[in-house]
Specification:
Blueprint: E1 4-7, H1 13-22, E2 27-29, E3 36-40, H2 44-54, E4 63-65, H3 72-75, H4 81-90, E5 95-100, H5 107-110, E6 115-119, H6 124-133, E7 137-138, H7 153-160, E8 166-169, E9 180-183, E10 190-193, H8 199-206, E11 210-211, H9 213-216, E12 241-245, H10 248-258, E13 263-267, E14 280-282, H11 289-302, E15 310-313, H12 321-332, E16 337-339
Parallel strand pairs: 1-8, 2-8, 4-6, 5-9, 10-11, 12-15, 12-16, 13-14, 13-15
Antiparallel strand pairs: 2-3, 3-7, 4-7, 5-6, 9-10
Helix pairs in contact: 1-6, 11-12
Bound molecules: adenosine monophosphate (AMP) and magnesium ion.
């Protein structure tokens, strides 16, 4: 099939994309987080096509994208006041909530769970596609399963050209890492995945937040976890990645000592001069963590090259959005971290 590239700014695009969604086809949609591989979230066959196109494990549930909090009741029940508070504070935006699912949501969409993840994205063309299609759009990140997420229409075409009906081109994603996921089905709200809405912002609204252990540590693939997506290898280029922590100078000294031809260095723009001759690739400025989140996946995709032997990566420290960048980079590195301050 020929994959249509639909410009996000073209006023005709939303109607064309919505018609394809209604027909059960796959349409990649731009959001402020990453590009999603979208389909009618209430149509089992359409949802099955998402899993097939990505090579995604069946038990890894999808996020339902809706137009706003007024649609939550259609797909969720026992919605706590906290959910409305979060929607008021952060929607449209990079926050996904896990709530008890109504029977209208197919098990294929929820990966067999009786809960469903919902979000209202902050891209107007995508909300218009949802509105015109008349259905919630189920969409995981539009990458092939296990690979770094897609943050441009070109990334989506690289992974899916000829296999999906259309890509809506909304330009590079503003946030660049997937949405923050909060589980609201227990007494205490639980952070399942950090993202553009930070733990600090969540606590300001909720007054309380438990951080799931899968956020900070490697989860065994047979483990029973709250967000099934967290146990799979993620975001990873083909070669091993190792994070080198510590001061700029100590890290550079460590990496330069161990660097061999065929290795690459993934660093902050401010550090490029320290890695002359070591094929450095910058993913953003350390002084502005939003540039790091926006640039991370494009850089990881560039480094997904069988000719590369190993990647040494620099990771921002601290909370806020840096917390989400740390999470993705640690997963890409399978939690392999070397402390340059402790090494000679
Ligand atoms: P992706 O769209 O690729 O970011 O993947 C969606 C993420 O949402 C995965 O990590 C899923 O595990 C998570 N997710 C979706 N639905 C649920 C749910 N009902 N409960 C917990 N996590 C969910
Ligand atoms: Mg994904």
């Amino acid at each position: 099939m020929e994959t249509l590239l639909l410009p996000g700014a073209d006023p005709a695009t939303a109607a064309v994309a919505a018609a394809l969604i209604r027909q059960g086809q796959l349409v990649a949609i731009p959001t402020e987080t990453v590009y999603g591989l979208g389909a009618d979230g209430l149509n089992e066959e359409a949802v099955a096509r998402i899993f097939a196109a990505k090579g995604r494990p069946q038990d890894n549930p999808l996020i339902l994208h809706i137009c706003g909090p007024e649609q939550m009741e259609q797909f969720c029940h026992h919605i706590p006041q906290k959910a409305y508070d979060l929607a008021e504070a952060f929607w449209p935006g990079p926050l996904t909530m896990v709530l008890p699912a109504r029977k209208t949501v197919p098990k294929r969409t929820t990966g067999g769970l009786d809960t469903v993840a919902i979000r209202c994205p902050d891209t107007s063309v995508t909300r218009e596609i949802i509105r015109l299609s008349g259905v919630p759009i189920a969409a995981p990140s539009a990458n092939l399963s296990g690979k770094p997420s897609t943050t441009t229409a070109e990334h989506v075409l690289h992974d899916h050209n000829g296999k999906i009906a259309a890509v809506v081109d909304g330009g590079p994603c503003r946030v660049g890492v997937e949405s923050t996921i909060v589980d609201l089905t227990e007494d205490r709200p639980r952070l399942l995945r950090p993202g553009g809405v930070t733990p600090e912002q969540l606590i300001a609204v909720l007054g309380d937040l438990v951080v799931d252990k899968a956020v900070t540590a490697q989860v065994d693939k047979d483990a029973v976890v709250k967000a099934p997506g967290m146990k799979y290898r993620h975001y990873a280029p083909s070669e091993p990645v190792v994070i080198v922590s510590g001061s700029r100078e100590k890290a550079a000294a460590y990496i330069r000592r161990h660097f061999v031809p065929g290795d690459r260095v993934l660093c902050f723009q401010e550090e490029l001069p320290l890695y002359e001759g070591c094929s450095p690739l910058s993913y953003g400025r350390e002084a502005d963590v939003n540039t790091l989140s926006a640039g991370l996946f494009a850089a990881l995709r560039e480094l997904d090259d069988p000719a590369i032997h190993q990647v040494y990566a620099r990771c921002p420290v601290g909370g806020g959005v840096a917390y989400a960048v740390q999470n993705r980079l640690k997963k890409a590195a399978a939690f392999h971290i070397v402390d340059a301050e402790a090494e000679e």
